[in-house]
Amino acid sequence: MANRTENSLRCSISKRPNDGFMLLTATFAGIVIGFLLGISFPTLSLTKMNFPSSILPSVNIVHVEDEKLEKSATLSPSKGLKSSDAAFHKIWVPSNPRGAEMLPPSFVAAESDFYLRRLWGLPKDDLPVVKPKYLVAFTVSYEQRKNINACVKKFSDNFTIVLFHYDGRTSEYDEFEWSKRAIHVSVPKQTKWWYAKRFLHPDIIAPYEYIFIWDEDLGVENFDAEEYIKLVKKHGLEISQPGVESRKPITWQITKRIPGIEVHKEVKEKPGHCKDPHLPPCAGFIEIMAPVFSRDSWRCVWHMIQNDLVHGWGLDFALRKCVEPAHEKIGVVDSQWIIHQKIPSLTGQGTAQNGKSAFQGVRERCKREWTMFQKRMSRSEQKYLKEIASASSNSTLT
Ligand SMILES: *[C@@H]1O[C@H](CO)[C@@H](O)[C@H](O)[C@H]1NC(C)=O
Ligand SMILES: *[C@@H]1O[C@H](CO)[C@@H](O)[C@H](O)[C@H]1NC(C)=O
């Protein structure tokens, strides 16, 4: 992430003499309170009651007692903790996130956000009263800045904007006013799904209700993001995309905009394309060019993205595994629609090799990844089903 100000603005404790004084005052106040508590409730001390650790009601109480004991230990060193007492008061909360079991639960910060904060003032006053509740991420090059600017303008202040720069040209975006409040991530020649897997973990973007993960070559003249979200909510779509208009042929019929309606969830494909009218590509299906995920569906889809299959081909056919029933919760919004400009971008960023052009090389990898994704998924499903079957046959034997 761009961090131009790191050196000049890093907090320097030694420059703030007042803090030392405040700390002393706070410590003194703590000692006095601890002393008063100690003399008013002497019988409450857990160590004196000598409970075995297994019947302690809650770890929180242990924690509070711990604080009190520390203070009284400061007051009179003779009453200090014995090493056995220290073990007695150890925090261990199995329901905490993995690895954080030794921390008091109410202190654990398991989730994060992309909200920008100030370096001064009170932390509670850093954020606007209405915090952004949606997120849009574009994977961009500098060449497409005009189109990205047009896209960003279709997203209100209720959106956090994330730009993944695959050509390393980040600061050039500063010509746009909104760039200052955007999150810029710059890693050369990586794909949208590579970035999404690494920088959009569901716990990191937990406050956002909807997540747009979009390509850079979409025309948005007929699109408004707030209106789009209203429709998505109204029709119960967990995974969606705007309808697409394109001068060139469209690969999958379901993505094509149907004028005059708000939303569609299924279409007729060419004969033989769909085994079942409720299955992709006839239903339960959108493309990976301009997907929109609800918070819950993204939690599942993020887990489905394979670290090495960076082009994301095949992902669209598997999205239906993340929502139930897929043919009702996956759909296309027709009344807020986009134009696919089909400008070759990242596909031109490969390396010519073995007599194949850069474009050919990338294309081949896309197709190979699609096969690999499908194979991996079906093998994993079979493995799981086999394990389930053998477990249940074992249990019926006994
Ligand atoms: C942002 O969200 C708030 C609260 O839901 C809403 O009142 C407001 O109209 C939204 N802003 C825009 C520009 O739509
Ligand atoms: C079921 O039993 C077989 C043979 O006893 C054993 O190899 C296998 O691990 C068992 N499976 C499970 C899930 O317990």
3D structure, described in words:
Keywords: Membrane, Transmembrane, Transmembrane helix. Pfam families: DUF707 (PF05212). The chain crosses the membrane at residues 21-41. There is one protein chain. This protein has 398 residues and is α/β, with parallel strands linked by helices. The chain folds into two domains: 6-107, no CATH class; 134-349, Alpha-Beta Complex (Spore Coat Polysaccharide Biosynthesis Protein SpsA, Chain A), CATH 3.90.550.10. 35% of the residues lie in helices and 12% in strands. α6 links the parallel β1 (134-140) and β2 (159-165). α2 (17-40) crosses α4 (59-75). It is globular, with a radius of gyration of 28 Å. Bound molecules: 2-acetamido-2-deoxy-beta-D-glucopyranose (2 copies).
Q: Please state the oligomeric state of the protein chains shown.
A: single chain
Uncertain spans: 1-25, 32-67, 72-78
The tally of strands reads 9
CATH architecture of the largest domain: Alpha-Beta Complex
Q: Which small molecules are bound? A: 2-acetamido-2-deoxy-beta-D-glucopyranose
Order of helices and strands: HHHHHEHEEHEEHEEEHHHEH
What percentage of amino acids are in beta strands? 5-15%
- The name CATH uses for the topology of the largest domain is Spore Coat Polysaccharide Biosynthesis Protein SpsA, Chain A
State the secondary-structure class: alpha/beta
Mean pLDDT: 83
Measured between the Cα atoms of the first and last residue, the distance is: 57 Å
Radius of gyration: 28 Å
The CATH homologous superfamily of the largest domain is termed: Spore Coat Polysaccharide Biosynthesis Protein SpsA, Chain A
List the domain count as a whole number: 2
What composes the largest sheet?
9 strands, mixed
Coarse morphology: globular
Task: Specify the helix fraction band.
Answer: 25-40%
Number of helices in the DSSP assignment:
12
Keywords: Membrane, Transmembrane, Transmembrane helix
InterPro entries: DUF707
Transmembrane segments: 21-41
